[in-house]
Amino acid sequence: MNGATVWLTGLPSAGKSTIARALAERLRPGRRVEVLDGDEIRAHLSPGLGFSREDRIENVRRVGWLAQLLARNGVLAVVPVIAPYAEARREVRAAHEAAGTPYLEVYVATPLDTCAQRDVKGLYARRARGELTGLTGVDDPYEPPEEPELTVDTRGCAPAGTAAQVHAALRERGLA
């Protein structure tokens, strides 16, 4: 089976990693799948990068390159990353298109207030206490995708249900 990249983008605590893990679990029987989690990538592939606009764009380029490498070798790369800037996401998409590698952008469109309530990593609480600046969607921009292949909102939907939506989109395209 051909590889592909499933790029999940959205605010911190939107549910990207949870959806990615549920999707990978759903696809793994009989399918090579790798989840390229944004936090793990930062720790292992981009540890020297900070959170300036330039560094965030470079991190997205690196993740995109790795996803495309895996995908062109038959792996379904599931990539849950914030990727806040449209410019960087366009570059990743263009690189996939140039290589003829299937690419599915999923916008995890969970509203900011819901993300702040979840606050999985405590980022919103740290920001509220003045311990953190540059939080995407709060005091650093998040540019929502203009034409994602799929938009999901995780409010009131279990991760398995959202993963099923992504899986259906992959099946529609002959990628699952």
TrEMBL record:
Residue runs in coiled coils: none
GO molecular function terms listed in the Swiss-Prot or TrEMBL record: kinase activity
Catalytic activity of the protein: adenosine 5'-phosphosulfate + ATP = 3'-phosphoadenylyl sulfate + ADP + H(+)
Name of the top EC class for this enzyme: transferase
Acidic residues bias spans: 140-150
Domain of life per record: Bacteria
A Pfam short name: APS_kinase
EC number: 2.7.1.25
Record's keyword annotation contains DNA repair: no
InterPro entries hit by this protein: APS (IPR002891), APS_kinase_dom (IPR059117), P-loop_NTPase (IPR027417), Sulf_AdTrans/APS_kinase (IPR050512)
Name listed for the protein in its UniProt record: Adenylyl-sulfate kinase
Source organism: Streptomyces similanensis
